[in-house]
Amino acid sequence: MSAVTRQVVEATLRQFTDPNLNQDPVSAGCLREVAIDGGKVRVRLELGYAAGLFKNGWAQMLQMALEGVEGIDSAKVEVDCVIGAHKAQAQVPALANVKNIIAVASGKGGVGKSTTAANLALALAREGARVGILDADIYGPSQGIMFGIAEGTRPKVRDEKFFVPLEAHGVQVMSMAFLTDDSTPVVWRGPMVSGALLQLITQTAWDNLDYLVVDMPPGTGDIQLTLAQKVPVAGAVIVTTPQDLALLDAKKGVEMFRKVNIPVLGVVENMAVHICSNCGHAEHLFGEGGGEKLASQYGVDLLASLPLSMAIRMQSDGGKPTTIADPESQIAMIYQEMARCVGARIAQSGLGASAMPNIEISDD
């Protein structure tokens, strides 16, 4: 019987592809330790993204594969999730207590951007990350409703300078809606809106966040440019529907983020198909395949394709988005996969100040 070597272990691991990174764990740089003691093998992997619901199954799959290799009597695979701070735009200072900022944007309104942002934040939290969400849609804030925060709730103020974010469903939440009345419109010019956005971001006492999801207003105007130039955004998610008009505006959103050197992490397609609740007939009310075409055109991932569903709307209006209202549903699973892919794309963009840990080798 041949002796087990590190090369044999690595060759076995290379046969499996992490579906979130689209790479095997060795090529993706996740391998941190290989310890071999006769026929016993211990492997430690480190994922750079939140994957609490994925890592145990991934470890078990790799363990079974290793135990099927000749000469290996037993194997143990440990998978840890270590989320680092990642590179953002050059010359933009980091935000205190926030590792990664994700902008969720759309070219036009009414495509489900806020619903996507809320479910992305909640899905990342379910994967074990510390998450906050900032409602940057100054004119039409909606995250307070989606997170079930009662009208009139106000954030506390710390040291007469910082807002303390509210917490709902395990996510830190901050919104202009918490500082104004729901029935009072915000009638401000662009510079005032941009100033309010910067104040909300920089003067909120975020508590040690792995990810801050920013729900952007639709369009490519003052707020988007302010965010791109003043806030260290790790990447952007573009939300659209398959409709040609929505796709036209979504393309402008992609181009805007590219011009300001913010990576586009992928595209989310909402209202892709409607399934009749009576007969089960599937109908593409807003067109078909638009999100996939947009993603292909710009060389990014189609992160998710979601149906036009009454449940999504009712759960969001009720203050419990799908990810937590029905966590075992097919739609919730799509949001979880989307969240893991978003985190993985940020991790692949490269670490910032902190370097990757060294691989430790122990062969007996």
Automatic annotation (TrEMBL):
Residues of the signal peptide: none
Alphabetic keyword roster: ATP-binding, Hydrolase, Iron, Iron-sulfur, Metal-binding, Nucleotide-binding
CDD domains documented for this protein: Mrp_NBP35
Entry keyword annotation includes Iron-sulfur: yes
Limits of the MIP18 family-like domain: 6-79
One matching Pfam family: FeS_assembly_P
InterPro entries registered for this protein in UniProt: FSCA_dom_sf (IPR034904), MIP18-like (IPR002744), Mrp-like_CS (IPR000808), Mrp/NBP35_ATP-bd (IPR019591), NUBPL-like (IPR044304), P-loop_NTPase (IPR027417), YlxH/NBP35 (IPR033756)
Positions with a binding annotation for ATP: 107-114
Description of how the protein assembles with itself and partners: Homodimer.
Role of this protein: Binds and transfers iron-sulfur (Fe-S) clusters to target apoproteins. Can hydrolyze ATP.
Similarity comment text for this entry: Belongs to the Mrp/NBP35 ATP-binding proteins family.
Protein name: Iron-sulfur cluster carrier protein
Organism in which the protein naturally occurs: Aquipseudomonas guryensis
